[in-house]
Design a protein that fits this description.
Strands 6-7-10-9 form a four-stranded mixed β-sheet, covered by helices on one side. It has a three-stranded antiparallel β-sheet with strand order 3-5-4. By secondary structure, it is of the alpha+beta class. The termini are far apart. It has helices at residues 10-22, 52-64, 86-91, 129-139; strands at 28-30, 33-35, 70-73, 95-100, 103-108, 118-121, 143-146, 172-173, 176-178, 182-185, 190-191.
């Protein structure tokens, strides 16, 4: 296979190649060429891991409501999913995940009150941008998130507007600058009282 152009979401390719290797077909990737040798897959038992993109919402909830006690099941500590990066990003905001067997306990150390600015390059994991943007707005933290050119704006029609979507109990008014490459909030947003 010859890849033309820039690779936008490398974690998906890495995950595919790692799973192929787990089942007996070890592809070789050099520069823009992936060579898949002739061979056969070996049947193995396999448990489908829970989705780290979906888990990101629970990490955000832990940050927004630090006294919460949230336990997640079905994720892997050494996940192949690119969105497992949410654990690293959230640790910078005071939220940690502790593995207890097959369960992941989320806790906040209280550091979420920090009003420092947050920067994240999500080139390989743009699907967690929505989670981070809403969470950071609710926490009143300025941010700059880059690497979003592959993220479909159609999935987020209300981001960047000051008019909240209907039926929302806590509308956010935030001057978010959106370009093809990044989303940026330079000052803390206003979150209306509940």
């Amino acid at each position: 296979l010859t890849i033309e152009g820039e690779i936008m979401s490398r974690p998906y390719i890495d995950m595919t190649l790692a799973l192929m290797a787990r089942y007996g077909v070890k592809a070789e990737w050099r520069e823009n060429v992936i060579h898949v040798p002739a061979g056969e897959y070996t049947a193995l038992d396999f448990t489908v891991e829970a989705d780290w993109s979906a888990a990101s919402y629970w990490w955000a909830m832990q940050a927004i409501v630090p006294q919460s006690r949230i336990t997640l099941k079905g994720l892997e500590p050494q996940s192949l999913q690119g969105d497992s990066r949410i654990a690293e990003l959230m640790s910078q905001m005071g939220v940690t995940g502790n593995w207890c067997g097959r369960y992941l306990d989320l806790r906040s150390d209280g550091g979420v009150g920090c009003c420092c600015s947050t920067f994240a390059d999500l080139s390989g994991t743009p699907d967690i941008a929505q989670t981070l943007v809403v969470m950071l707005c609710l926490m009143g933290r300025p941010f700059r998130i880059t690497g979003l050119r592959t993220l479909r704006m159609a999935t987020m029609p209300s981001v960047g507007t000051s008019k909240p979507p209907p039926q929302k109990p806590r509308p956010i008014s935030a001057p978010i600058t959106i370009t093809a490459w990044q989303w940026r909030l330079r000052q803390p947003p206003f979150v209306s009282p509940v």
